[in-house]
């Protein structure tokens, strides 16, 4: 079983920055994709950013140029640097990781960290 723990959320003013971190623990032989999703009240969970095993990245259009996803494979961690935050970025942000464990592939979600952008 792979466990994910996010950190770094909080309250920030519009135009501010936050950096989210996610640590994966457990029996992990290989990580494939690492991603950040978000879900605002009354809305569906959406993909914010993804980084693949080959370090290719993908972003939802609304965050391009403002958010940067990165990973540290040696530490099994993924980060999301969020700049120029807007009120519409307010949501609960979830870390997602898939890969291979001891016997089979896995996909795991964290519990989420709240990001609130407000003046």
Architecture overview:
With 119 residues, the protein is mainly β. The chain starts with a strand and ends with a strand. The strands form 2 sheets. Strands 2, 4, 5, 6, 9, 10 and 11 form a 7-stranded mixed beta sheet that branches. Strands 1-3-8-7 form a 4-stranded antiparallel beta sheet, with no helix packed on it. The chain is 0% helix and 58% strand. The chain has strands at 2-7, 10-12, 18-26, 30-39, 46-51, 57-59, 67-72, 77-82, 91-100, 105-109, 113-117. The chain has no helices and 11 strands.
The N- and C-terminal alpha carbons lie at a distance of 40 Å
* Cα gyration radius (Å): 14 Å
Number of strands: 11
Question: Which stretches of 5+ consecutive residues score pLDDT under 50?
Answer: none
User: What's the order of the H and E elements?
Assistant: EEEEEEEEEEE
Structural class: mainly beta
Chain-averaged pLDDT: 96
Which band does the percent of strand residues land in?
A: over 45%
């Amino acid at each position: 079983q792979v466990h994910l723990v996010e950190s770094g959320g909080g309250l920030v003013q519009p135009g501010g920055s936050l950096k989210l971190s996610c640590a994966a623990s457990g029996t992990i032989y290989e990580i494939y994709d690492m991603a950040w999703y978000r879900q605002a009240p009354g809305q569906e969970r959406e993909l914010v950013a993804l980084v693949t095993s080959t370090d290719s990245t993908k972003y939802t259009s609304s965050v391009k140029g403002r958010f940067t996803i990165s990973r540290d494979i040696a530490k099994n961690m993924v980060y999301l640097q969020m700049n120029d935050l807007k009120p519409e970025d307010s949501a609960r942000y979830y870390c997602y990781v898939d890969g291979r464990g001891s016997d089979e592939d896995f996909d795991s979600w964290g519990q989420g960290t709240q990001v609130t952008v407000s003046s």
